[in-house]
Design brief:
The protein is an alpha+beta fold and 154 residues long. The protein has 3 helices and 6 strands, in the order ββββαβαβα.
């Protein structure tokens, strides 16, 4: 595995609403689709909005060099790790993944290792979709690999 390559840049971030009882949240599905994101989410009323900072995947193999992807697992493992971190942050505010209305995802993409969108979706649908039907609006973009020093700082 290449040094410094984390398959999922994993700066997944979430915009969530607190005090949902005071807000009307209308989720507009993608027409004629079962894809697990909303086409748009409309929020009406007096609410508090939380912006959760991006997260990177946790080390899953403590025996591996933290500047290599072996320390973080494959894209699915990284996705689950990051979404689990976000879930914990939300729970600290008394919220859940059902409160997420917008998600931004950055996946590493390069000539040597194209982004693994399928593996990302396998991890993502453990948190959104059939198990949790309140779908967020979402963007996914491919980005250059992050430097090895970033992974060592986590």
């Amino acid at each position: 595995m290449r040094r410094g390559r984390i398959a999922l840049l994993a700066v997944l971030s979430a915009c969530v609403l607190g005090a949902a009882a005071r807000a009307e949240v209308i989720r507009h599905p993608i027409p004629n689709s079962t894809f697990p994101i909303a086409q748009a989410v409309e929020v009406r009323g007096n609410v508090t909005t939380y912006y959760v900072s991006g997260q990177v995947p946790p080390v899953v193999n403590k025996d591996a060099d933290p500047s290599t992807s072996a320390a973080y697992g494959d894209t699915k493992t990284q996705t689950v790790g990051v979404l689990t971190r976000i879930k914990g942050i939300l729970e600290g505010f008394g919220l859940s993944m059902a409160d997420v209305v917008k998600m931004q995802v950055f996946l590493v993409h390069g000539a040597a290792a194209p982004m693994d969108f399928k593996a990302f979706m396998e991890g993502y649908t453990q948190f959104f979709g059939s198990s949790q039907p309140d779908l967020p609006a979402r963007s996914v973009v491919g980005v250059a690999p992050i430097p090895a020093f970033w992974s060592r700082s986590r």
